[in-house]
Write a structure and sequence with these properties.
single chain, Arc Repressor Mutant, subunit A, elongated, 3 domains, alpha+beta, BirA Bifunctional Protein, domain 2, 7-stranded mixed sheet, 305 residues, SH3 type barrels
């Protein structure tokens, strides 16, 4: 009901009477008023005049009703420990494929290698639950697909020259704009669910805690509407998802990559490898040429150029 009321208010700059809203939506005026109060409580500025209701301004918050096509799949929170934790619990309770958990703030957001991902107000933090019949070795391709789609969205929708650093960070001019993390659970040889968590510096300022980070707001010199960015990414992500497990996704990732051809240091829990990044294999592993000419295959780790 909230999404339908908002659609009518957005289409009509002049006030709409409660009587007309109730007639169009076939509910009582009391129901209309209840949902109007709910929208006001969620920081929508709706003026109630003698002639009816008028939408004055609205928050940049990715509420479920802001995306009518996915309304039943989006779970929005003001603040959570991490969207990954919430998504994991939903996945274990058999939530549907392509469920999205999004939060305005994370109290304990994390990146790879259990590093902290600072998740202040103004950023975009979400996790997607995927249920795809695939073996675990295809996870690298799915991650490559997600990061290349995000880079493409940033380039085409916002004019930002976004590059992908192996395995899936998004950089602009060498500074980190976005981080990505995935986790899975499997039964036998097939993945039960794969969760991809994404954190994007949108209107927040990450620099005091992460000097090598950057935000969309600082790049574009204007605030960015987070809910529009989320919808634009999800539209692209879901449109060609059937390609995510194909070998073609590796070549697509390479068109946006900033890692291959660079001297790199890759750090894992057990070792630190230095060499030249020469290629990635069909499962997304980074192939590093060591000083003695041997090739080291890195399946995971933090990569530093």
């Amino acid at each position: 009901m909230k999404k339908e009321i908002l659609q009518l208010l957005r289409q009509n700059p002049q006030p709409i009477s409660g009587e007309k809203l109730s007639s169009v939506l076939e509910v009582s005026r009391v129901t209309i008023w209840k949902h109007i109060k709910g929208l006001i409580a969620h920081r929508y500025d709706i003026a109630a005049t003698a002639k009816g209701y008028r939408l004055v301004s609205e928050p940049d918050t990715p509420f479920a009703w802001e995306d009518p096509e996915r309304c039943e799949r989006i779970h929005h929170f003001d603040s959570v420990e991490s969207t990954m934790e919430v998504a994991r619990e939903l996945a274990r309770k058999d939530c549907q494929h392509l469920t999205i958990v999004v939060a305005d703030q994370q109290r304990e957001g994390r990146g790879r290698m259990r590093r902290i991902w600072h998740s202040d107000q103004g950023g975009l933090y979400f996790t997607i639950v995927l249920r795809l019949p695939m073996p675990p070795q295809y996870i690298g391709r799915i991650n490559f697909y997600a990061s290349s789609v995000l880079a493409e969205t940033l380039r085409e929708n916002y004019g930002v020259k976004a590059d992908v650093k192996w395995p899936n960070d998004i950089l602009v001019d060498g500074k980190k704009l976005c981080g990505m993390l995935s986790e899975l659970e499997a039964e036998g040889d097939l993945v039960t669910f794969l969760n991809i968590g994404i954190g994007i510096n949108v209107n927040n300022d990450p620099c005091p805690l992460e000097p090598r980070a950057i935000s969309l707001k600082s790049l574009l010199h204007r605030p960015v509407i987070r809910k529009e960015l989320l919808i634009a990414f999800l539209d692209r992500f879901e449109k060609n998802l059937e390609l995510a497990m194909s070998e073609a996704v590796i070549e697509r990732w390479k068109t946006y990559n900033a890692t291959l051809g660079n001297s790199v240091t890759v750090v894992t829990h057990n070792e630190t490898i230095k060499g030249n990044a020469v290629d990635v294999d069909l499962d997304g592993a980074l192939l590093v040429e060591l000083k003695d000419g041997t090739i080291k295959k890195m399946i995971y780790g933090d990569c530093f150029h």
